[in-house]
């Protein structure tokens, strides 16, 4: 839309066609831009061109398109065709995401910790992002997000002490065989095991996010999640079912995301 207005500004006689499937002018002032573009004479045709051929003599481009509003196939002869491509993450974003333990969405952009409650935070503590690395967005949204990311970072940078999640993996060295499985599965690289020296698994508490993956994977039952030990969970279940257990349903849900997912449902 913006480009069509710019072309009209410099070449008022230019005939412009925009072929589209859906137009969502969702931002502040975007609907005005769309309206102005139409008022300037830009033609919006609902339908995707199925074929583009070149006139061998005059080299013009011929487009065949099914106009779904008029329910007919139309043909246009144009001097120039510009393809509007979708925005994709850069190829090396995956490498960076692996390095920083950042999750990615199915289309490759980085994933926020929570879309409403922590929209500029990565799930990995201390990492914040802004702009199109998270999803395609315009300048205004990018600047707003950048401001929020700076504010979130400054809380950490200006703190004398940092508060951390109390939920950490704790290794029972009497049970640990130094097999190394926990270190392999830890998504945060928070466990060090010297398999040869057999010194047991050591959890770097500052890096441990308390996800519980290692505890679930350890075949020797050597890892307990602090504040979520089996004894504590069983005690909670007993307490919950003390009265009228036949009327209750107990669900085991993720400590991190069940509230957020319920909130979004
Ligand atoms: S998976 Fe269990 S036994 Fe193996 S190194 Fe880790 S804590 Fe030790
Ligand atoms: S609880 Fe999760 S983050 Fe912490 S050491 Fe185990 S696997 Fe790594």
Describe this structure in words.
This protein is of the alpha+beta class and 265 residues long. 28% of the residues lie in helices and 15% in strands. The protein folds into three domains: 2-78, no CATH class; 93-157, no CATH class; 169-262, Alpha-Beta Plaits (2-Layer Sandwich), CATH 3.30.70. The chain contains eight helices and nine strands. The strands form four sheets. A three-stranded antiparallel beta sheet has the order 3-4-5, with no helix packed on it. It has a two-stranded parallel sheet with strand order 1-2. A two-stranded antiparallel sheet has the order 6-9. The longest helix is centred in the middle third of the chain and has 19 residues, at 139-157. The chain is elongated and about 85 Å long. The model has no long low-confidence stretch (mean pLDDT 91). The structure holds iron/sulfur cluster (2 copies). The site of one iron/sulfur cluster has 14 residues, from α5. One iron/sulfur cluster binds next to α6.
Compose a concise summary of this entry.
InterPro entries: 4Fe4S_Fe-S-bd (IPR017896), 4Fe4S_Fe_S_CS (IPR017900), FAD/NAD-bd_sf (IPR036188), HdrA-like (IPR039650). The chain has helices spanning 2-10, 30-39, 93-100, 139-157, 181-185, 213-217, 230-240, 258-264; strands at residues 17-20, 43-46, 49-54, 61-67, 72-78, 169-171, 191-193, 201-203, 223-225.
Instruction: Determine the structural class based on helices, strands and strand pairing.
Output: alpha+beta
Gyration radius, rounded: 28 Å
**N-to-C span:** 34 Å
Number of spatially distinct domains? 3
User: What percent of residues adopt helix (DSSP H or I)?
Assistant: 25-40%
Low-confidence stretches: none
Number of helices: 8
Shape: elongated
The CATH C-level class name of the largest domain: Alpha Beta
Number of distinct beta strands: 9
Task: Please state the average pLDDT score.
Answer: 91
Q: Under the CATH scheme, which architecture of the largest domain would be assigned? A: 2-Layer Sandwich
Strand content: 15-25%
The description of the largest β-sheet is: 3 strands, antiparallel
Give the ligands present.
iron/sulfur cluster
Question: What name does the CATH topology of the largest domain carry?
Answer: Alpha-Beta Plaits
**Strand order, sheet with most strands:** 3-4-5
Helix-strand topology string = HEHEEEEHHEHEEHEHH
């Amino acid at each position: 839309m913006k480009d069509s207005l710019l072309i009209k500004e410099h070449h008022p006689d230019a005939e412009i066609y925009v072929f589209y499937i859906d137009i969502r002018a969702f931002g502040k002032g975007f609907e005005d831009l769309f309206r102005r573009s139409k008022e300037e004479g830009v033609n919006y045709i609902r339908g995707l061109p199925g074929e583009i051929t070149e006139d061998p003599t005059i080299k013009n481009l011929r487009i065949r398109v099914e106009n779904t509003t008029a329910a007919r196939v139309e043909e246009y002869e144009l001097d120039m065709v510009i393809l509007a491509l979708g925005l994709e993450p850069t190829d090396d974003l995956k490498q960076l995401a692996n390095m920083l333990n950042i999750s990615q969405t199915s289309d490759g952009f980085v994933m926020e910790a929570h879309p409403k409650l922590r929209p500029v935070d990565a799930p990995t503590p201390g990492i914040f992002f802004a702009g199109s690395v998270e999803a395609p967005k315009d300048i205004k949204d990018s600047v707003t997000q950048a401001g929020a990311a700076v504010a979130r970072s400054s809380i950490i940078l200006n703190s004398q002490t940092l508060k951390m999640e109390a939920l950490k993996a704790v290794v029972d060295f009497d049970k640990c065989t130094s097999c190394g499985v926990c270190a392999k599965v830890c998504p945060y690289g928070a466990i060090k095991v010297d398999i040869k020296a057999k010194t047991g698994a050591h959890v770097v508490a500052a890096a441990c996010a308390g996800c519980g993956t290692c505890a679930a994977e350890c075949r020797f039952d050597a890892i307990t999640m602090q504040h979520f030990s089996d004894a504590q969970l069983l005690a909670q279940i007993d307490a919950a079912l003390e009265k009228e257990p036949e009327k209750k349903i107990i669900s085991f849900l993720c400590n991190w995301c069940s509230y957020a997912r319920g909130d979004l449902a």
